[in-house]
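A.,

Following up on our hallway conversation. Structure tokens first:
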């Protein structure tokens, strides 16, 4: 990775008459050592393709362009496209797309890579409120990235990497697909404007196959959302309410899966969620045959 001249984000914003958009969570990473740590965490191979989500003003995109064969940089805020284009003009291996990643089919993005790719990486600096949605959107695509490197609030990073006993819906939505770990922490002062909290970089290396069979992923998310919908309640109660099941059915499904209905959602490990999904699907199939 070659050295790059500093990028003066405040001056660039002034030149274009812009201010950071708080509603979009715009806190630009401006510290060069931190930017390098993000790129190092991605371990980009020579010639590899990278999809960057939330390019902002290109501070990280520039470093990605020096390490990758090609970069597709997505930015939601149309006001940032002109200065972003200026910053990235020296790099002929970057393609800029203005849009919402949740409205874009990742398979279409990867098909645009030339030459056709075998794998690609995702690098993103994303706000908490869409973290889970972005991860699921990317990992349910036919052409999945082999690794994600996400800069998120430190508390969110710790939640993503939590272990059994402290799992959340966010942690499950990640750990079904891959192994997350925090690779570096970034202080609030490394961003402009300075946020109120520190951040961390989470690296997620994908498994060859999800821990839940792909055909049962929708059923898994339905059950998990129901289970976590009322965190203070037992699984028997939360599944009954969230799945609109009679209490007796919720208890029966849990017991048939070998799970105590008095437990709470955060105490289940992924293997137990898999058993619960399997039992739920079997119960549904049995009921369908009975109804016929």
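Then the amino acids I'd put at each of the 292 positions:
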């Amino acid at each position: 990775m070659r050295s790059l001249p500093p990028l003066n984000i405040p001056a660039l914003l002034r030149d274009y008459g812009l201010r950071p958009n708080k509603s979009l969570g715009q806190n630009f990473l401006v510290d060069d050592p931190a930017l390098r740590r993000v790129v190092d965490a991605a371990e980009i191979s020579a010639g590899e393709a990278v999809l960057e989500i939330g390019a902002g003003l290109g501070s990280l995109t520039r470093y990605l362009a020096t390490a990758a064969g090609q970069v597709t940089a997505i930015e939601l805020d149309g006001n940032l496209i002109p200065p972003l284009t200026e910053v990235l003009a020296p790099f002929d291996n970057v393609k800029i797309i203005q849009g919402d990643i949740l409205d874009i089919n990742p398979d279409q993005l990867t098909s645009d890579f030339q030459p056709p790719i075998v794998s690609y990486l995702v690098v993103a600096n994303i706000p908490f409120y869409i973290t889970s949605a972005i991860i699921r959107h990317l990992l349910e695509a036919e052409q999945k990235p082999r690794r994600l490197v996400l800069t998120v609030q430190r508390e969110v990073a710790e939640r993503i990497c939590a272990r059994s006993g402290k799992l959340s819906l966010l942690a499950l939505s990640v750990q079904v697909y891959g192994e997350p770990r925090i690779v570096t922490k970034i202080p609030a002062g490394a961003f402009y404007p300075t946020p109120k909290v520190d951040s961390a970089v989470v690296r997620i290396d994908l498994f060859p196959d999800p821990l839940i069979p792909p055909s049962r992923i929708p059923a898994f998310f339905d059950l998990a959302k129901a289970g976590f919908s009322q965190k203070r309640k037992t699984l028997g109660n939360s599944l009954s309410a969230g799945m609109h099941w009679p209490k007796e059915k919720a208890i029966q499904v849990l017991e048939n899966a070998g799970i105590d209905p008095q437990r709470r959602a955060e105490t289940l490990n992924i293997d137990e969620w898999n058993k619960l999904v399997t039992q739920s699907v079997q119960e549904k199939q049995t009921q369908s045959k009975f109804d016929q």
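The radius of gyration is 21 Å. Curious whether your intuition agrees with the design.

B.
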